[in-house]
Amino acid sequence: MKNSTALYKRHRFPSDIIQYAVWLYHRFNLSHRDIEDLLVEKGIVVTHESIRLWCNKFGSAYTKKLRHQHLGYGDTFFLDEIFVKIQGKQRYLWRAIDQDGEVVDVLLQARRDGKAAKHFFKRFLNNCRNEPRKIVTDKLKSYGVTQRELVPDSIHDTSQYANNRAELSHQPTRVRERDMRRFKSMEQAQRFLDVHTAVYNLFNLGRHLVSASDYRDLRQGDLRLGKR
Known about the structure:
Number of helices: 9
Number of strands: 5
Distance between the termini: 4 Å
Helix content: 40-55%
Mean pLDDT: 88
Structural class: alpha/beta
Low-confidence stretches: none
Radius of gyration: 19 Å
Largest sheet: 5 strands, mixed
């Protein structure tokens, strides 16, 4: 991440330590207290509350940087939505990924109707930056109506099992949601998921497609890119 004097002003710890703590939290299934313990092993004494504040404050800045550096998405997109309970109320987490498993967008919304589908479509189309050749969804009617209105020239596939890729992409979120004992609010959940998505894409290198040595080189390159 790019070091900015203004961004880290009045913070006692160096930017590298702050970046490392925020990266650990969003990359691995760790709590703020787990990261506190890991830093202590390196001789860095910082409270879990400070780490939580770092994640809240700097996460969005890092996400913006990573998205700016992203090299782009494919031309086939898989969209899906799942139920998420927050403060006893049912909410909906919408997700769009491309054919390479890159997460284009995630959005929490209170509804699962045509207006919500249109809002999500506009967001993900803006993020993917190119006209989709094909869009794959389940049979929710709102998808079809929105697709015909916003991207009528794209192929819309609703066949059985075609959208399994998007459904499986929710699993990492479910794991973190469970270990965090559910999201506390829509704002907190959206903030976390934005950063989690950007960090996930940073390490989505298609490990099964390259040799072990090439994978290590690519991973090191992405880590350096993320810290510029």
